[in-house]
Amino acid sequence: MNACAFSISHTIRASQFLIRVGLVALAGMGVVGAQILTGRVAGTPITEQSAIVSSASYPDTYWVLNDSGDDARLFAIYENGEMILPPFLKKYYDDSTHVFQGFPVFGATNQDWETIARLKDTLVIGDTGNNGNARRDQALYFVLEPNPLAVEGTHILSRVPIAYPDQKAWPPDEWDFDCEAIFTFKGKVYFLTKQRAAQTINRPKPATRLYRLDSRFTTRINTLTLVGGQDNLGGWVTGADVSPDESRLAVLVHHPLNSGIWIFNAPQHGDNFLRKSGQFFPLGKRGQCEGICWKTNNTLIFTNEDQDIFEIQLTK
After folding, report:
1. What is the mean pLDDT of residues 169-185?
2. How much is the pTM?
3. Which domain range does residue 46 map to?
């Protein structure tokens, strides 16, 4: 998606909120070290990276994707931003005029890819972007993680169409059914929505709802289950990921003055991560932050659409 301007009044209210909760939460979270710029993906076809997820099988490997309008393809990168490709292809891409174009995902269409997650060694791609809330064809693609050093492309396992139980019109009166953040927990896929005010693409609501996918039909709609929600996270939800030990959920929120990361502890019972208050870490002006994943149980990676890659170390 393209960066959108916030209204002046909303910007003031949201920035005051972010500063207030940030100062309180930061003290309790135990942040170790600063944000470290670890890489950039400049000079590659990764022009509008919207999501990132760590590999299940290959060290220091991350999967990223471009936003709407791109081909149906994935990119494998190292944390320093270097693209990964099979050695047998490198002779064809040995100068700046010939650049590797990523791994095509056969059987898929990128209408508005916005998010990616992982279920063990299966990648889950979210074709769930819905700026105007009029889409009725949102879906997930399930793809076995390919070996980026050995293959030239991959094929989907399945396409799983999804719908929200509380959306009754396309578009509805309340534009609450865009999604740029999916994550997995205990074998299930979850969705955090991105919401808009007054049926206007450029006016955000800082609220989100949490949904769960309970079925994986490929020939009919899978209606999601509403789990919970939060009224004010201070910005648009643009990414999320659960730590490898499934003890914490990181939620990335974008705001032009002060983007940030919320950390929610896993619930003792059930799966409503948003039932209790989280802890907030302000990122400052880091561009349009859109992707986040855990590197380890205490280390987060986040990205922006300016092609930057950052690392943050946390403690419990």
Report:
1. 97
2. 0.90
3. 8-314
In a domain, 169, yes or no: yes
| pLDDT tens by residue, 223-249 | 999 999 999 999 999 999 999 999 999
Inside any domain, residue 2: no
> Are the CB atoms for 313 and 291 separated by under 8 Å?
no
For residues 187 and 44, the model is more confident at: 187
Q: Residue 184: inside a domain, yes or no?
A: yes
Q: What is the CATH number of the domain that holds 102?
A: 2.120.10
Q: How many domains does the structure of the chain reveal?
A: 1
